[in-house]
Amino acid sequence: MTVNLMPTAVVIGAGHAAGELVTRLRDHGWTGGIILIGDEPSLPYHRPPLSKDYLSGLCTAASLLIKSPEAYAKAGIQVITGTRVLRIDRQAKLAHLSDGRTIGYDKLALTTGGRPRPLSVPNTERAAQAGNFHYLRTMGDVDAMRRQFDSRMRLVIVGGGYIGLEVAAVAIKLGLQVTVLEAFPRVLARVTAPELSAFYERKHREAGVDIRTGVVVSDLEMDPSGDAVSAVLCADGTRIPADVVVVGIGLIPNTELAEAAGLAVDNGILVNEYAQTGDPDIYAAGDCTNHPNDRLGRRLRLESVPNALEQARTAAAAICGQLKPYHVIPWFWSDQYELKLKMVGLSQGYDQLILRGSPDTDSFSAFYLKNGLTIAADTVNRAPEFMLAKRIIAERLLVAPEQLADDSVPLKSLLPPT
Prior knowledge:
β22 (331-336) and β23 (339-345) form a beta hairpin. Helix content is 24%, strand content 28%. It contains twelve helices and 26 strands. The radius of gyration is 23 Å and the shape is globular. It has helices at 16-27, 53-56, 61-64, 69-74, 124-128, 139-146, 162-173, 194-207, 256-260, 305-319, 383-394, 401-405; strands spanning 8-12, 33-37, 77-80, 85-89, 94-97, 102-104, 107-110, 114-116, 133-135, 154-158, 177-182, 210-213, 217-222, 229-234, 239-241, 244-247, 251-253, 269-270, 282-284, 289-293, 298-300, 331-336, 339-345, 352-356, 364-370, 373-380. The model has no long low-confidence stretch (mean pLDDT 95). The strands form seven sheets. Strands 3-2-1-7-19 form a five-stranded parallel sheet. It has a five-stranded parallel sheet with strand order 9-16-10-11-12, with helices on one face. Strands 22-23-26-25-24 form a five-stranded antiparallel sheet. By secondary structure, it is α/β, with parallel strands linked by helices. It holds the Pfam family Pyr_redox_2. It comes from Pseudomonas lurida. Its cofactor is FAD. Residues 9-312 form the FAD/NAD(P)-binding domain.
């Protein structure tokens, strides 16, 4: 057992939230010990480039690191990699590790993230043991994929969300034959309007991707050796030959540790506006949390880097006794080809869509309105309008639909001076 002679903060998980949280603890005056524990072999690293520049070979593993080893050492942060936390004993304030160690804590933060949602078909488990079947969540996942991204290969992607489309954009540039299978009637159906879905479907088809919507995968065909997937089988009887298969159909939050410790869990670890769980000495941040959003008047779980970073900052401040509630407008981004999509707000429940500019120009914005108020916006290659949209939504500014639609008038001129 590790005996701590000073107050110790233990952070479980090693993603964006963890990397931000440990550093912010020092910034907020935490003078005790800080221990970061992650089950991957690497230090915390940036995940968004995994399906983009890292997959395409444009950046290295070292360049993905959120902070250098020297930065953690300088801040007095002990980092334990390649080790899982098996159990949390809240009564004794102990974390039991897979390597046999037991570490005591005064404050604990759960930044356990999530894992890919598995494909639910009969041969999934057999396919998972095959070398050409992949999910995408970690650097190791992408390393395995990259070794098979040869221009002669037929790639089948299951899932037409951000991950699936980003992988498709990289793969088609590398010369692979790419097919995307989406169960919904359109790609990006959960997050954007039909107009945006149609735009992205058109851009991918123009690039050479075979996009098929309304397609339900029923099984995976294994080759005679049983060591590789040879085809993806669809419910309508279609058989799609495959040399490589990538599945991107969502994320499951890693809440098992919290649940086993008796913490409240409901589609994520339940936290308050200070990222605090029901245990006053345990906090949580990132993809694994379900937090209250005062602007929406309900709880939600977000899977985004900005959310992980901001919530980690809130948690670090609260651990140090500085209560700064987390009230941030959600935002996301996706890079596909030369298209930079930035999204702010949540569009569910909108009753009017306003397009500003034409999708034919590859530079436009879409504003989602509900009862005349802008609740979300998608911008494609329009970074300045994205920043203005963030302000419109955050300040609940009323901008008339006809003004939003008039691309000849600068959006900034429609807003009150700051």
